[in-house]
């Protein structure tokens, strides 16, 4: 899938999709939010009524600003992708992800930025997500994502990732519109 891309020469970036179920497994030992209020930094969930939720950020700046996206960012020199995703989630929303697992990878090409994006899924974290200069976090039900305000290609792979599947993809954008979309699911997310 990436034969045409000199992936070793592309900048690397990460994304984290934190999934919090209603089984009490995730979180920091505190009760999950129980008032159902959106944007309280707590997943709904310990009343058995809600399904899984995932943490998205409304990005205030940088690539993809003004959209909802998983927390993440660019890999720094000398850093592994796993170290990057842990650092970026801490910087952007103030929590520590404890069990990030790489579940996907995609090559992104556009008019002004190319990258290899490493996608992680996590279910365990410590702390409470908080708004920062970079990001406004909010929990969304996995079956009610704000897809109209996300990268268009997220809809191709994010439901698979939230379902625990792996994927590889290649997305070419021009004028903020996808021109080429290739995806394989159920494959090792190597690179
Ligand atoms: C179809 N294309 C895409 N779909 C979904 N997400 C995408 C993406 N292309 C880039 N991304 C993510 O966008 C962030 C950029 O990084 P960004 O936040 O600008 O970097 P970083 O936090 O290091 O910021 P500074 O450069 O220090 O400002 C980073 O998470 C990266 O994975």
From TrEMBL:
PROSITE patterns (UniProt xref): NUDIX, NUDIX_BOX
Pfam family, one: NUDIX
InterPro entries: 8ODP, Nudix_hydrolase, NUDIX_hydrolase-like_dom_sf, NUDIX_hydrolase_CS, NUDIX_hydrolase_dom
GO cellular component labels: cytoplasm
Record-annotated Nudix hydrolase domain positions: 9-163
Reactions catalysed: 8-oxo-dATP + H2O = 8-oxo-dAMP + diphosphate + H(+); N(6)-methyl-dATP + H2O = N(6)-methyl-dAMP + diphosphate + H(+); N(6)-methyl-ATP + H2O = N(6)-methyl-AMP + diphosphate + H(+); 8-oxo-dGTP + H2O = 8-oxo-dGMP + diphosphate + H(+)
Keyword Cell division among UniProt keywords: no
Keywords, alphabetical: Cytoplasm, Hydrolase, Magnesium, Metal-binding, RNA-binding
Single GO molecular function: 8-oxo-7,8-dihydroguanosine triphosphate pyrophosphatase activity
Location of region: Disordered: 1-75
Names of required cofactors: Mg(2+)
EC number: 3.6.1.56
GO BP, one annotated term: DNA protection
Primary role: Oxidized purine nucleoside triphosphate hydrolase which is a prominent sanitizer of the oxidized nucleotide pool. Catalyzes the hydrolysis of 2-oxo-dATP (2-hydroxy-dATP) into 2-oxo-dAMP. Also has a significant hydrolase activity toward 2-oxo-ATP, 8-oxo-dGTP and 8-oxo-dATP. Through the hydrolysis of oxidized purine nucleoside triphosphates, prevents their incorporation into DNA and the subsequent transversions A:T to C:G and G:C to T:A. Also catalyzes the hydrolysis of methylated purine nucleoside triphosphate preventing their integration into DNA.
Family indicated by similarity: Belongs to the Nudix hydrolase family.
PANTHER family: 7,8-DIHYDRO-8-OXOGUANINE TRIPHOSPHATASE, OXIDIZED PURINE NUCLEOSIDE TRIPHOSPHATE HYDROLASE
Protein name listed in UniProt: Oxidized purine nucleoside triphosphate hydrolase
Species: Halolamina pelagica
């Amino acid at each position: 899938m990436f034969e045409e891309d000199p992936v070793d020469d592309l900048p690397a970036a990460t994304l984290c999709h934190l999934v919090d179920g209603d089984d009490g497994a995730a979180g920091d030992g505190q009760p999950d939010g129980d008032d159902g209020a959106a944007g309280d930094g707590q997943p709904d969930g310990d009343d058995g009524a809600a399904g899984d939720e995932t943490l998205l950020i409304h990005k205030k700046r940088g690539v993809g600003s003004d959209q909802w996206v998983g927390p993440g960012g660019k890999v720094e020199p000398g850093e592994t992708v796993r170290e990057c995703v842990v650092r970026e989630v801490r910087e952007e929303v103030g929590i520590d992800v404890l069990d990030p697992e790489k579940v996907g990878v995609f090559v992104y090409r556009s008019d002004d930025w190319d990258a290899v994006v490493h996608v992680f899924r996590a279910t365990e974290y410590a702390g409470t997500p908080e708004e920062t200069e970079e990001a406004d976090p909010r929990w969304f039900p996995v079956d009610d994502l704000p897809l109209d305000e996300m990268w268009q290609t997220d809809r191709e792979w994010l439901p698979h990732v939230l379902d625990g599947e792996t994927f590889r993809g290649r997305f070419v954008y021009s004028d903020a519109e996808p021109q080429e979309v290739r995806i394989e699911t159920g494959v090792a997310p190597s690179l």
